[in-house]
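Technical note accompanying the year-one report. For the benefit of new consortium partners, we illustrate the data format agreed upon in the data management plan: each record pairs a sequence with a structure-token string. No post-processing was applied to the example shown here.
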Amino acid sequence: MTTSPFTTTADPRDEKPQYVLPLVVRLEKTDPPARTDALETSARAVLTMLADPRSTGDGDWADAIDAWQDARIRKVVRRARGGEWRKAQTLPGITVTGGSAEVRVYPPVPLDGWPRELAKLQVSGTDLDDPEPPPPAGPAVPVLWLNPELDMSAGKTMAQTGHAAQLAWWELSDADRAAWRDSGFALAVRTAPPERWPDLLRSDLPVVRDAGFTEIAPGSCTVIADHPALRR
């Protein structure tokens, strides 16, 4: 099974400066996004940031991305509405839109060095619902399988699906990365059937083990990234 960089096991990463990838979800009172769409959009936002030319080589964000990936891979999801959302849009970043969700992702920042416009946004209480159960994912679509035994807030789960997408991205070949990017990072987030979860854990697919900073116990397996290219 793939080793996850999100565990609490002692690691040389702990000795390095710690960075966090900020994500902000637009959450208006009168028209909140569907939960699954928000989870999928946050995962695509992380992939979009990783694939952006500004995040590699001599790009403007490359140093921040490298520092973040050399330490613990942290992501924090905050929520914004109205004027807060408009201000959040003025900071350098990328807005990714789903069916009903909008998520803006920013280059990593020091753990204790959030921009003022983002630091004041709320992080807790981000919860969403699906108006109806999502349909089954297509056979060729990458699926991020949620642990059916865990109960996480939407904000927490958005960070976890971002982790899973990132793990899959790291393991793909350049050609498979390009194909995924060309598809618009097509993916689905679904809760695994309880009877299938043990098989997924044994499948050697990338698995996120949470560090346990919030909501759930350290070491909990939260999401498994099931990309067709990783099953070849």
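Partners are asked to follow this layout when depositing records. The first strand starts at residue 19 and ends at 26.
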